[in-house]
Amino acid sequence: MATLSVALTGNPNTGKSTIFNELTGARQKIGNWPGVTVDKKVGYTRYKDRAISIVDLPGTYSVNARSPEEQIVIDYLMNNKIDLVMDVVDSSNIERNLFLTVQLLEKGIPLLIDLNMQDEAERRGVHIDVHKLEDAIGMPVVTTVGRSKKSTQKLLDVFTSTVMSKYQPSQIVKDHIAKVEAIEAGVGTEEEKREAIIEARYALIDQIMAQAVDLSNVGASKSEKIDHYLANGFLALPIFLLILYAVFQITFTWIGQPIADWLADLITVDFYDWAGEALTAAGVEDWMVSLVTDGIIAGVGAVLSFVPLIFVLFFCLSFLDGTGYMARIAFLMDPIMRACGLTGKGVMPLMMGFGCGVPAVMGARALDSEKDRMTSILVTPFLTCGAKLPIMALFAAMFFPDNAANVVFAMYIIGVVMAIVAAKLLGGTIFKGKGSTFLLELPPYRIPDMKTVLLETWDKGKGYLVKAGTIIFAASVFIWFLSSYNFDGPTEEMSESFLATLGGWMSSLFYLQGFATWEAGAAIISGILAKETVVSTIGILYGAGDVDTDEIEDTAETMMQTGMFTAFTSLSAFTFMVFSQLYTPCVTALGTIKKEAGGWKWMFFSAGYQFAIAWVVALLVYQIGSLLGFA
Amino acid sequence: MTLRDAKVGDVVKIKEIGDSALKERLMTMGMIPGTKVKVLRSAPWGDPIAVRIRSYNLSMRKADAKSVEVEPAVG
Amino acid sequence: MATFITGAFVCVGLYFALRHVYRNFRSGTSDCAGCRGCSGGSCHHCAAEIPDNLARKG
């Protein structure tokens, strides 16, 4: 039998992705819709000897083809032969969810309606009579409760049955379609017609609701009660900071860092020694042993040992995302964003910037006004992306072992503050114009589905692993070469290498910032390639990985070994962190900025102004710190 | 009065949505003449506001709420 | 001999690594760590559009 093709559609926040993940598990392919940067998720499964392919369409409130997502949904549904289209409806929010349902029915698309989160709706007092709903719409209705084996089983049973052929739109739906056609054929401007059609749709929805749904027992929802604390007035801001702080503690103190320490020890000490001995024993010449151990293992290892941190952080963010709290952050931050002439919705792309600047810069596309877009693009790279995180984690662990999480947290705050300041400056000078609008659903709070959170975490963290194996690997070899050779050939002393010369030039800019060593200069240059290379360069130059953070305090010998403690004081290390946080974005981000902002001009502007700002801020931090007596 | 003037806790009924860049989107999200809206809360500094409409929660700025013409309603 | 073999391994590794970096560059994609786009229902993928000719070659 041919593969059964199923498409999932529905509003955002309906648990559609959870259903998709439950149905297909890890058997999914994530690609792109042609021409746009929107995920195309296709998954596969087998049931009763039937191969089933499932497409998870983007979640949309309507299909007016105004956003790329809406365009994709309608194009896909109209132009492909699909065996079954399932419209996932959040039962407790059925009224507004039905808008999309009605719109799809107008297009003549037969639907299987899935009343998801049925349990949640019942608890809230939303009582839906499934049979009456089937009669009112004329389409089959199933109920599910999100993540449950039984629901998945039920859906697969329906998919493989021939239920769809028995249904056709009810009389009231047919009447509605005739009415819409009449409006379209009638007189009036396009705008008036569109508005009349929207009103007609809600009139139909009111009719369906009256027939099949009992809302008489609905009180204030649990989410509204929670929001009384989490999204209300000024109390909500400290709670927001507290939640972020907890994420940091989990990542840098409780779970992530201990695993990272263990892994760093394993790679850069045990494996390093073992590989060195094994290669020497096999008769490999010294320079090649050095390339493999001091170059590749030290460089790639320094980056790899931060994988646990990255995954723990992304897990926390995906988890928060799944709870629905992210929308509250946008709500809370809107006043602050608006003060900078931006919109609270801009928080979403900015939050992406904590993962990676590249999608964050792309995500700015979703913002309405040119001003919002350009400002977002140019300020996003100030944030602490996943690749800067290892720099912060490394320096914090070495120089501030007792306060590592706090120091890293401070770096995140500095990044955010600088982004806000820069937005304000840009908004007041280069991009003058009207600010945009803010209209956002506050979805119900939910306990996230673990499978979805884990899949998302893996999806996000994967890129970091791939980078370690490719660009970081290549850069490590390159940096090893630069650090071991000069124009006269191999050099014993790193301080006479190409890298020392290059780094020396760069570092001459940083006398006033307290880190004018060629090693720091070299790390800064390499960081433009990819931020992780700052860490791998330091790993190669200082063998930083050799130092076990637990032993730092009592083993003076280890301290001397690394040279890092002679090159940096606590204050200059802190200053270096601040500089790394703020300076020129990596080449990939710069390339994206060129593409999204439309030209080389903006790319060079972005590279230049961030370097300048970082230089000035680092100067202030170091000089004021010195005056205050820190060292 | 407009939705902007409604106090936290008020329940109002939409009379009309005036011209605004958001008009069509507001309507798509369920703001149709006759729909009841309850003002739930506001963000720090009083703006944006969160409202309950058609049994879900929506947030919007006061500047946009100004274009929504409302009248007092019960429950 | 052992040096040669080790070197060959490193070169093969470098070849694949650089090819990957080059392809990313050609197609405008990136291995970004952490796409935060998948909130609010719209999922902006990390990778930009892949030109047809490249996509077909895989």
List the helices and strands and how they pair.
The complex is a heterotrimer of chains A (about 625), B (about 80) and C (about 60).
Chain A: E1 4-10, H1 16-24, E2 28-32, E3 39-47, E4 50-56, H2 68-79, E5 84-90, H3 94-106, E6 112-116, H4 118-124, E7 127-128, H5 130-137, E8 141-143, H6 149-160, H7 171-185, H8 190-212, E9 213-214, H9 222-230, H10 236-254, H11 256-281, H12 286-304, H13 307-323, H14 325-339, H15 347-352, H16 357-363, H17 370-379, H18 389-399, H19 404-428, E10 439-442, H20 450-469, H21 471-484, E11 485-486, E12 489-490, H22 498-507, H23 518-527, H24 532-542, H25 556-562, H26 564-567, H27 570-582, H28 587-597, H29 600-627
Parallel strand pairs in A: 1-4, 1-5, 5-6, 6-8
Antiparallel strand pairs in A: 2-3, 3-4, 7-9, 11-12
Helix pairs in contact in A: 3-8, 5-8, 7-8, 10-13, 10-19, 11-12, 11-13, 12-21, 12-24, 13-20, 16-28, 17-19, 18-19, 18-27, 19-27, 20-21, 21-24, 22-23, 23-24, 27-29, 28-29
Chain B: E1 11-17, H1 23-28, E2 36-42, E3 49-53, E4 56-60, H2 62-65, E5 68-72
Antiparallel strand pairs in B: 1-2, 1-5, 2-3, 3-4
Chain C: H1 2-27, H2 52-57
